[in-house]
Design brief:
There is one protein chain. This protein is of the alpha+beta class. It has three domains: 171 residues, no CATH class; 84 residues, SH3 type barrels (Roll); 82 residues, Alpha-Beta Plaits (2-Layer Sandwich), CATH 3.30.70.100. It contains ten helices and twelve strands.
């Protein structure tokens, strides 16, 4: 069955006539490509891929590339169906590669990224765990080996596809200056990431403080050290993404470097007339009662000075809580200090001031519930 009206040429593109049937086929295949591309990025496909224990970022890359590939495939098929020949094996204008070779190149590059991710996972979970090396050093070695596999794999794939890196030197020299200004921060972050992995000034699990862009310090625990940035989780359960150059250019406080022990200083003021020996014993007892206080070095209390309203002590304790919950530990200690001082009958006074009036008249007004207000004057 033929439909002359639908098969009549409507317009011409590149010397090829397009009919109504061709337009209908083009619209149908292009719509199918959109539907399949959207399905490949759905949560169902991501859950299926996650069963193979793939990295989340790698799954996102794979689904995106597959979605774009499906869209390109159906678009090319739609163009052919419209009556405009676009061959899969013919080289594209200005490019020595055909569409089929480009798709194969994309598949191979996906395989290289997967191999790099899998290599890091195998090194960390199987081989390096039995080596006896430090956990942070194992992670650093796995990251560096993963980068080497990625770079070598990309070079091999491009070379086999006929894209020789030597031929790109002229192009790289032409655009290197312009691109260098735009990518200098990314390259700097990447190189600093390699320095961090090699020198290990910070490692996964360390509690650190680094100056932020607004001047306020960023404090938290290191979760991941990536190629360009480091992930820090604060005590408020907020994830901060800090560029790696920040750890090289700025001073970094690492509370976990070398030794997890941290010394805490807690000031305490007591009233004049208190038994100072009892105060010292009560403070040390409060520190020892907490389970997170280290017995070596032992906690101690020092009489700092005689203040305006209080006798000032300072409790010195050592703990490892700086790597997890320092604020909670200090709060618990303050509760224990108050409990032990109260039990010993030691007062923590309010600020006091003595007022001296040299001359003049001071009006004193007293108010009681049962008697009317009485006024009196005292001459000084």
């Amino acid at each position: 069955m033929s439909f002359p009206l639908l098969e009549r040429p409507l317009f011409q593109v590149g010397g090829h006539y397009v009919t109504a049937v061709g337009l209908i086929a083009f619209a149908a295949l292009f719509a199918a490509g959109l539907i399949i591309a959207r399905f490949l990025q759905s949560g169902l496909v991501q859950r299926v891929l996650s069963r193979f224990k793939l990295d989340t970022n790698f799954i996102a890359i794979v689904t995106t590339i597959l979605s774009l590939s499906a869209l390109v495939f159906f678009t090319v098929s739609a163009i052919n169906a419209a009556g405009i020949p676009l061959y899969w094996t013919a080289p594209l204008p200005g490019v020595t590669l055909s569409l089929l070779q480009i798709f194969l190149l994309i598949v191979l590059l996906i395989g290289v990224f997967w191999l790099s991710s899998r290599t890091k996972r195998l090194l960390v979970n199987r081989f390096l765990t039995r080596s006896g090396l430090d956990r942070a050093l194992q992670h650093a070695i796995a990251q560096i080996v993963g980068y080497v596999v990625l770079i070598v794999g990309i070079v091999v794939v491009l070379d086999n596809a006929g894209i020789h890196l030597g031929a790109l030197t002229v192009f790289a020299g032409a655009v290197g200056v312009g691109v260098g200004f735009g990518l200098r921060h990314i390259v700097s972050d990447f190189l600093c990431g390699l320095v961090i992995l090699a020198e290990r000034p910070i490692t996964i699990g360390d509690r650190i403080e680094v100056p932020g862009t607004d001047g306020k310090p960023i404090a938290g625990q290191v979760q991941h050290i990536r190629a360009r940035s480091t992930v820090i989780r604060t005590n408020d359960d907020i994830v901060m993404i800090v560029p790696n150059t920040h750890f090289i250019r700025c001073p970094v406080t690492n509370w976990h470097y070398g030794s997890p022990r941290v010394r805490f200083r807690l000031p305490v003021g007591v009233a004049y007339g208190s038994d100072l020996n009892k105060v010292r014993d009560a403070l040390i007892a409060a520190a020892r009662e907490h389970s997170a206080t280290l017995s070596d070095p032992e906690p101690n209390a020092y009489l700092e000075k005689f203040g305006d309203s209080t006798v000032d002590f300072e409790l010195i304790v050592w703990s490892q809580e700086m790597s997890s919950k320092p604020r909670r530990y200090k709060s618990d200690l303050n509760f224990l200090i108050y409990k032990h001082l109260t039990a010993a009958g030691i007062e923590i006074p309010n600020p006091q001031r003595d007022l001296h009036i040299r001359s003049g008249t001071l009006k004193v007004e007293s108010v009681t519930k049962s008697e009317p207000t009485s006024r009196s004057e005292a001459k000084l």
